[in-house]
Design goal:
six-stranded antiparallel barrel, elongated, 32-stranded antiparallel beta sheet, mainly beta
Length: about 850
């Protein structure tokens, strides 16, 4: 059977190669049959031959009608000619007219299999196709084709020689279902591939139901990649601001690496806002995003007592450099500046609304290959929205040298002095402190503080038995151009300060010596027990620090000023306003003691673990206790006792603990007396403050989802889309997650104790594969009220999505409901209902 089949195949190939069907006259048989799984190539070079070979194959059979010059292909037939490919269950080729036709046929289960046609990157699915090889014209019935981000459905389609498609009875949609959930229906459509789609009068159809929403014509861009275009606004009415058009603007596709959005809001009562957003990215080099915003919100009228005008702005810029782009130098930026109330008045993001501090940093660092030197420069900003204070560092520069050890010229055994190392660090700072309302005014720079600090630490490390000894000597020098002088005015009985320009270089030094070791304690149990072993690691550390009295008059760093009419005086530092401070006053001989503890246990291997390796569980990650004793003082020599602990339970529960104890008795106004608590009250110290935090987090991933997340991170285009639209990305890979946080703070500086405690709860739940809900709330036990609370619901409607955000109470009480098309092509096809927080007062 195989030999007969091979002969038939060979003869048919010879017939096609040397006696083409459209010119054959030597063969008398009217038909010939070809078995399945065969590829035939039409020979070139004959009269009227096609320009390129025609390849065709079928899994069932191929039948040739030589007299009529027809070829019939049965079963998963495929035709390839140049850039054209046709796949269908049944195909007929007519060499008389150089045409082919394909039809829909059912498979063995009765499911209809439709022809699929591809040409120059365009793909069609249709119930019937007729196509001419030479003219490249065709007619397609009940076609479905993808055009850019959308799909075109047509009852009849004609294709001309310029590759333009004319469709009668067509629908345009972004739904990828064969029976789409929605579409824009038009009697006539014109499709110009990789350019545009034009329709006549069209109306919206949802689930086969026509709606009264109609357009006189339709124009849809069909180019691949980013495209410039208008961003249509949403409309509505606000009780406080009037009728509005929001989020309207224009999108600029500024080339391959950058884009720009410009949006605006306009209200009928005079309020307005403007925002710009630009993203840029160059692969393997850098990426970033710039956001700017300004809002002008006017409530009520100037004639009424409830009138208010709020002008706010914000600036955000993030820039990241690929580490491989320039390994020895790096530039990064994370800028977050606002007027103090912008996000409170304009944002719906809980993190922005609840943040009290905003920080910015623009940094550049440079190192040299095979060199110990490093350079860095930073511009920093820190803003507190409650105190309105803004701190700027313009700039903060640092030049340092890594530790260099002394080397012996004699090879062989290591000398003792080779453990001695020296390093260097220079820091220049220029700081400005102002208020957010004065940030961009000239007066903001009236109180500039600048200076230079040089630090040279010399250190060594020796090991004697199990004890490590580390002596060090650190010298610090500051360069200032100003000093502070204080005088007493007897008329006003006040002390005035004056800043005087004076170049000076105060310096100080400190000598240290520390000793540390590790003590291990291990308790092993029988192998049949669940607990196999317990290990306790104790790390004691003893440090001695000595420093002379730089407040002595011979140094000239301190002065004395009268403070009242009785003649009492006070010592002050000439450099108390210096950016790096001044040399410390008073000598010191501080002996510090600290003990760190770590407790772990090994338990029976987990069920199913074939390696038999015991599991390690951390009972106490770190328990630290520390205090100190100053030998140079004549009273109050003991330092406060500090205790902290940290541990994780079941890998999901994190517990932290911090406390401070005062070893001395205090009087009624909180001053320490030189009397120990252990002698007066029988305790080592008085509890000054205490803080504990509990964080409990749970999350669940199914096995299939974990495998999917590990092996499939999405295409480059999908990752780019998520990067550009991070706020709109919904992660359905996690079925549910929950995080509970509890914080308790106790403070008793004098006689009255202050206790605050709060509970926070956040989480989300994937109800089904299309429904996901999230929440964020908390409770303040001191004020007996709920903290900022929000509830969100997301519904995946395949080609649509629905999002609902609700803040049920509080000063931000509001809701926002949006139903929109997912695709960016029809992103303005949406329905929005909202009630902003500022409408609650009307």
């Amino acid at each position: 059977m195989l030999q007969v089949r091979s002969i038939i195949q060979f003869l048919n190939i010879l017939i096609l190669c040397f006696c083409p069907l459209y010119g054959i006259s030597q063969v008398s048989d009217s038909t010939m049959a070809q078995t399945a799984d065969t590829i035939i190539t039409q020979k070139q070079g004959q009269n009227d031959a096609l320009k390129s070979p025609v390849h065709y194959t079928a899994t069932d059979s191929i039948r040739f009608d030589v007299a009529e010059k027809l070829v019939y292909l049965y079963g998963s037939a495929e035709i390839q000619y140049e850039t054209t490919t046709l796949k269908a269950p049944y195909i007929v080729i007519d060499w008389n007219t150089n045409t082919l036709s394909a039809e829909t046929r059912p498979d063995s289960t009765g499911k209809p299999i439709k022809p699929v046609f591809k040409d120059d990157g365009e793909e069609f699915t249709a119930s019937g196709i007729r196509y001419n090889f030479k003219s490249k014209k065709g007619k397609i019935l009940e076609v479905i084709t993808r055009e850019g981000d959308g799909y075109v459905h047509g009852e009849q389609v004609k294709k001309d020689t310029s590759n333009v498609y004319y469709i009668r009875g067509g629908d345009y949609t972004t739904c990828d279902h064969e029976d789409p959930h929605f579409s824009l229906h038009a009697s006539k459509l014109k499709v110009i591939p990789n350019d545009k789609i034009i329709t006549g009068p069209a109306y919206l159809v949802i689930e086969h139901v026509p709606t009264p929403l109609a357009l006189p014509f339709g124009y849809f861009p069909n180019k691949q990649g980013k495209r410039s275009g208008i961003l249509l606004p949403t409309y509505g009415e606000s009780k406080g601001l009037g009728f509005f058009l929001k989020d309207g603007g224009y999108y600029f596709a500024l080339g391959k690496y950058m884009d720009l959005q410009v949006r605006g809001d306009f209200y009928s009562r005079g309020s307005w806002g403007a925002r710009t957003s630009s993203s840029y990215r160059k692969r393997y080099r850098f990426s970033g995003r710039v956001d700017l915003g300004y809002s002008y919100l006017k409530f009520s009228d100037p004639e009424f007592p409830d009138y208010s005008l709020r002008k706010d702005f914000f600036i955000r810029w993030s820039h990241q450099q690929d580490p491989k782009a320039r390994p020895l130098s790096r530039f990064s930026a994370n800028v977050n500046i606002n007027s103090g109330t912008y996000f409170r008045n304009n944002s719906y993001n809980a993190n922005d609304v609840l943040s009290n501090e905003f920080m910015s940093s623009i940094g550049y660092s440079k190192s040299w290959n095979q060199s110990p030197f490093n350079f860095s420069m930073n511009l920093k900003h820190r803003q507190n929205t409650q105190t309105k204070v803004v701190n700027l560092s313009l700039p903060d520069m640092s030049f340092s040298m890594n530790r260099l050890n002394l080397k012996s010229r004699t090879p062989g055994k290591k000398r003792w002095y080779e453990s001695i190392g020296i390093s260097y660090n220079m820091n220049f700072k220029n700081d400005v402190q102002t208020y957010d309302s004065l940030m961009f005014s000239p007066s903001a720079f009236d109180n500039i503080r600048l200076g230079v600090r040089h630090s040279i630490p010399i250190s060594a490390s020796f090991r004697i038995g199990y004890v490590t000894i580390s002596p060090s000597l650190t010298s610090n020098m500051r360069w200032y151009h100003q000093i502070t002088r204080k005088t007493y005015d007897p008329d006003t009985r006040t002390v005035t300060s004056e800043t005087i320009n004076d170049l000076s270089a105060p310096w100080d030094y400190t000598a240290n010596a520390s000793m540390t070791t590790k003590i291990y304690g291990i308790k092993e149990f029988r192998e049949k027990n669940y607990i196999r072993a317990i290990r306790h690691v104790v790390t004691p550390a003893l440090n001695f620090s000595i420093r002379p009295d730089f407040g002595d008059s011979r140094y000239g760093y301190y002065d004395e000023v009268q403070i009242d009419s009785t003649g009492r005086t006070q010592v002050y530092s000439l450099y108390e306003q210096g950016i790096f401070g001044g040399p410390p006053n008073g000598k010191s001989g501080l002996l510090s003691l600290g003990i760190q503890n770590n407790l772990e246990m090994k338990v029976r291997p987990a069920t199913g673990d074939t390696t038999g390796t015991p599991r390690k569980i951390k009972l106490i990650e770190n328990l630290a206790i520390g205090t100190g004793y100053d030998l140079a003082k004549d009273s109050l020599q003991w330092s406060r006792i500090a205790m902290s602990a940290r541990t994780s339970i079941f890998k999901n529960v994190n517990l932290t603990f911090n406390s401070v104890y005062d070893p001395y008795v205090i009087d009624t106004i909180g001053r320490n007396l030189n009397r120990l608590e252990v002698n007066e009250n029988g305790r080592l110290g008085r509890l000054v403050n205490f803080n504990t935090g509990l964080n409990f987090g749970l999350a669940h991933h199914s096995r299939e989802e974990r495998n999917k997340n590990t092996t499939n991170r999405g295409t480059e285009e999908e990752r780019e889309q998520v990067y550009r639209n991070r706020d709109g990305y919904i992660d359905f890979s996690m079925p549910w997650s929950m995080n509970v946080s509890y914080n308790l703070t106790y403070s008793k500086p004098v006689s009255e104790a202050l206790i605050t405690q709060s509970l926070g709860l956040t989480g989300d739940l994937k109800i089904t594969s299309q429904w996901k809900t999230g929440f964020s709330t908390g409770y303040d036990f001191k004020n007996n009220q709920f903290t900022y609370t929000s509830v969100s619901v997301y519904r995946d409607l395949h080609c649509w999505d629905m999002s609902f955000t609700w803040i049920p109470f509080g000063f931000r009480q509001s809701y926002n409901l949006t139903i929109k098309v997912k695709s960016a092509v029809l992103q303005d096809l949406k329905l929005t209902r909202r009630r902003d927080w500022y409408d609650q007062q009307y």
